[in-house]
Amino acid sequence: MRRLTAICLSLALLLTAGCAAREPAPAKPSPAPETPAAAEPQTVTEPPAAGEQTPAAAIGLSALPEEPSEWTLADFAPELCAGTAAEERCAVAEGTEWENTVVVRRGAAEGPTLYIVGGVHGDETAGWTAANLLKELCPRAGTVCVLSPANTYGAEHDQRKTRSQRDLNRCFPGDAEGWDAEQIAASIYADIAARQPALVLDLHETKGPQADAPERDDLRNAIIVYDVAPIADLVWELAAEGELTLLGSPPEGSVNRTVSAELGIPVITLETWRGEELSLRVARQLRFAEDVLRFYGML
Ligand SMILES: [Zn+2]
User: Fold this and answer.
1) How far, in Å, are 45, 151, 188, 266 from residue 68 at the CA level?
2) Which of 96, 134, 227, 229 places its Cα 20 to 30 Å from the Cα of 69?
C-alpha cells in the first residue's frame, strides 16, 4: 500500500451557501418502537485472512498517540494540513436539541465544494474519526464542508442508531417535525441542498460476518454509488487504486440514495471493515478522501 501523501483537491467551482438561519424545530415526540430497517447491501467478498492485513506500521502509523482522541490529521497525513485555509463554522438544526456544526474550510484558489458526512452510524468509529480529522484539512483550492459525527448521540454511546433507536440512514430526506433521526436527517439534507456540493462523501464502516445474520452488513472495504454514470471516472479510479469493492443500490432512506436521486448530487459511501485495527481503518478513510480531493484538483 502506498503511503499517505499530501491531499490537494481542486474541485470545479461552486458557490457555497452561507449559514442560513433556520427556525427552531418543535420538540421531538416521545420515542416509539421503529419498524425493522431494510437489509444492507449484500456481501460480495470474503474478509481477508489475518496474515493478509496490512499493518498500520507499514503506512507510517507506528508513532500514533495511544488514545484516538489525541490523533491529529498531521499524524496520518501532514501534507493535508500543512497549508492554510479560511474556516467558518455553521450550525445545522440550529436551536434544536440536535444542533450540530458544519466546519467549512476554504482554499485560496477557486474550486468545487466537497461535502463530507461522518458518523451517520454512531458505532462506525473510523468514519467519524476520519471526518473529524478532516476538519483540519487545508485544501489548496475549493471548499470542504465536514459534518461529523452526524449522529452525535450514537457516537457518544458507541451505537449505530439515534437516541430513540432509529437508524438515521433510513430517515432521509427527513422530517423537521418528526423523530430525532428524522429531524437530524432533515437538517443535513437541507444543508447539502443549500450548499450544492459537487460530491458528497458518506463515511461508514462494516462488520465482518455476523453469526445470527451472515448475509448482513458484510461489505468489507467497499464504495457504494447509486448512479455511477455522472462520476464514472472517479469511481473507477477509486475502486482500482484503493482496492475497494464497488457496490450499488444504497438503501431507501439513506443519505446516499436520497441525495443522489432527489437532489441529483452524486454521493459516494465508503465502508471500511471493522476487522482491521482502528488506525488502519482511519488511514483508509483518509486515503479515500485524499484520492477524491486529488481527483478534483483540490490539493
Ligand atoms: Zn453505516
Assistant:
1) 29, 19, 26, 31
2) 96
